[in-house]
Structures are given as C-alpha cells and as structure tokens.
Amino acid sequence: MNVGSRLLVGVTLAGALASAACGGGSASAPATRAARETAPPGLTSQNTPAPATPTQAATPSAAASVVVTATNPPPSPAATTPPATTAPAPTTAPPAPAVTSITVTAENLKFDRTVIRVKAGTTFTATFINKDAGVAHNLTFSLPDLGHPTCTGPCTTSQTFTPATPGTFSFFCTLHAEMFGDFIVD
Description:
The protein is α+β, with helices and mostly antiparallel strands and 186 residues long. The chain has five helices and ten strands.
C-alpha cells in the first residue's frame, strides 16, 4: 500500500469513527467522496475501500473506543476519592495540680527567706522548722481560713492549702512583727 492509499484509508476510517461516535448513520460515503477529490494524482478507485454499511458504522470498533477514551478520559481517581477525614484528637483529663512544697526555717528571730512564689490553683505545702530553742514561732499566710500552728523550738509543723486567687499576699509570724515576707501567687 502506498502513501496515498494510506492517507485515503485514514480519512475514510476517521469519517466512520466520527459517525459512530455521533450516533450512527453512514458518513463514510461523503468522507470517501472527499478523499477521492483530495487524493493524490494516480490513485484509482481500486485503491479506495468500499464504503461502510450502516450496520458497521453503528457498531463502534476498538479503534472508536480508543478515540473516545482519548478525547474523554475517565475521571482521575483523585477526583472520585472522597476527601480524607481526620480522627478527632483523643481527649485527656486535665493534669492534676502540681504539689509544691517549701520549707521555711526560723532562726535567731527571722525567717530564712523573704519571698515565697507559687502558681494559683497549685496545692502548696509549707513546712515550718523552728530552730530557736525555747522560743515560740509560727508561720501563717494572709489568706482566709488558714490557721497558724504555733510551736516552741526546736520543732516542725506544716500546713497544706491551695491558693486560688493570684496576687501578692504576706507570710509572717503572728508572735514577732519583724518576721514577714511576700507570698506571691501567679
């Protein structure tokens, strides 16, 4: 088969495929006529394929499905896949408040510190050590409902509480005015 024959067969096949893709009917006759009119010189009707019958044109061939697939590609898997969902984050119970403890020592009628700092909502234990032999001391805080256990040295006492409100308060000995400091709740 020469180049002209291949061209004519290609044009005729394209017309048949277009007809099959558009719903049938024989479009190969006009395509064949157009091919004859544009065929190179020397090409005879013997080289022209017979027109397709309506039954053949209505039945898409494997080539027709390739053309349809090539011009109308199927949707990509990404387009048909539902969006990914994320699992909700596991809920955890809030952490228990941290227990903060501090030791305050009284010796020679003074405390060993002037500032105590804690976080609001934190359980706080204050251990008081009185090293002044034969002298009574206590450690108290300027917060409501806190006692002030007194002991005569040498002795040790403690109290545990949870300061809820931020602010600057005081700690002190109720028996000795010179024994005091700042109790800061952040």
